[in-house]
Amino acid sequence: MAEVENLRASVLAALGEDGIGSGVDVVGRVCRACVRLLPVDGAAVSVVAGTGNREIVYASDAVSTALAELQFSLGEGPCFEAQAAGGPVLVPDLAAGPPPAWPVFAAEAAAQPVAALFTFPVQIGAVWVATLDTYRSTPGSLDATDLSTALQVADIAALALSGLPDGGERWLDGDGQWMDGAGMRFREVHQATGMLIAHLDLPASAALARLRAYAFGHGRSLLEVAADIVARRLRLDEEFR
């Protein structure tokens, strides 16, 4: 498809322009093009770390942002399934029944104007480093042409992400490992996880799970709980004694 090749060429051109924009801007270009090229209403790219941490690089709209934040808060959803399976997760009708792998996310997502979800893993080299998450507000499947286009866009997203180490905000190093970035949405979650690792002598995955369990059990967002821990208004070692 000419439009897909034009997108690839524009990303390559942008990555070759020293000092023009940032890597995040290039990822945003891919997300916006995804919405134009596919029968979807929103798209987001989130990078993933092995401990279950995530960071939103770009989301095309508020619903995409909410879905990405919800998945990270709960530790479940199509993005986690796509990364684990190494293949697309296609849910053409969310109301037909919650997928068994993520029933809580499906129930919470019902509060958003979302009827279908299509998620694609993004690979750099041998590492699944991110996901391209899309949604539509009405039920419906992707046909063969749409699916082919989506897979090509996911490849271009990988290309855009590969340029981030040299951009204004560093998210991934050359091996796809986690790095700090100035625009990280979940910075305080990562900081709070580190504090729990130190206070409770937990591995990173268990510390993040403790954060999620507290937030879910108290009906609060993960971001709110993390902010309280970083500000030392809350100590989970005291809460769980």
Automatic annotation (TrEMBL):
Residues covered by the ANTAR domain: 143-230
Pfam families from the UniProt entry: ANTAR, GAF_2
One GO MF term attached to the UniProt entry: RNA binding
Record key words, sorted: Transcription, Transcription regulation
Record bears the keyword Transcription: yes
InterPro entries for the chain: ANTAR, GAF, GAF-like_dom_sf, WH-like_DNA-bd_sf
Protein name: ANTAR domain-containing protein
